[in-house]
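Write out structure tokens for T9SS C-terminal target domain-containing protein.
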Amino acid sequence: MKNSIYTLCIICVCISVGYAQQEKGIIGASNWLNYWTEFNASTHDYGEPNKILSGYITEDTKLNKRDIYLLVGNVFVKDSATLTIEAGTVIVGDYETKASLTISKGSKIIADGYETDPIVFTSEKISKRPGDWGGLVILGDAPSNRFGNGSVAQYYKDLDPSAYVNASFGGNNIEDNSGILKYVRIEFAGNRLSNNTYMNGLFLAGVGSQTVLDHVMVSHSAGDSFKAWGGAPHYKRAVSYKASGNDFKLTFGAQVNLENSIAIRSPYASNSEVARCLQVKSYDDIQGVDFSKKNTFVTAVNLTFVTESKDINSDIDKGLVNEAIYVGENASLDISKSVISGFNPAVIFQNSIKINQENLDKIKFSEMYFNNCKGNIFVENNNNNEDLENWYGNSAFFNVYSKGDDTETFIDSNNPKKPDYRLRINKIMATNIVTD
């Protein structure tokens, strides 16, 4: 009888573990990375541009798939104009002028691609490299935690002072709708502005919750792939691939939902700053913060953070791999059902965060799968993490720790064209069963 009960327990545990794993990391009945993504963008030839976009777009404008557009200099969509981009359209950023496209506050972008016909922003060069052009900037009317409204004028190369007004963001409309980005790729953006400042692949400032951000891939960005200052963006099925900067950098009171998304890092792609998959901060300089406003709060579910490496332990020992997540003081993070695989360590808290009940209640990790990391959760510059291990290792959080190769962990991570980073459903994990 006892043996039968024991066998039944094993079966139940295996079934429950298998079911739970289906829910961890990126999910889907099929691999949603298929068709619209591109993991070999440097070799892709999109053809020669035949039309130029420059200066200001001040009235409703549509870009057509039949044309290839060359973006020259700092292009602004302003005066409440809407820029509509047909599915399959290609926009290439000029290398010499480090071109950028900005949707100014009050204007919109409607870039609604298809799974089999995505919209592509890329470099004009034959031999493409990170930072070849600027990037895509969207400015909205949602609040941040800064005093007054803000500006991103410092993020442009050779911006005329008369254009500074078009670089402002922020207001009181948390539901700001700045348009649609769906089935969109942004490649080789993030030109360098100074020693520590880069443009970004997709830079949102004051963008509200009604803006659609679904199936967006940023690859080979020299700066951050996805950056948000304030606002309330909701990212779904976002892909960051081999960014030199952070994959997701969320700050200045951003109220973010991040869902079913993936960041794939390379040990050999890094800019001058320490880069992570997810950086959650409320500010860089506390002097500029209005504490009567909300600080940064990120809700994240079904994320996969992975370092693409042939020998992860060797790359960690060489100092080529950083932590996956960094949490700053006065910021909140609630992350669940996510996978962190191949980092050093998995998570770091800013050293000014005191480890107490109040702060730990603001930083939640539950139903996580930590795999192949050199340590799990630490405070910055402190090797003693016993209190954090005890807290997050509590069975109430249902966090799991493992040491498995990517080939064992993911369905088909080695596929160069169509990788599948969903967890293997039938992967066996060690489970302690107490018997008498």
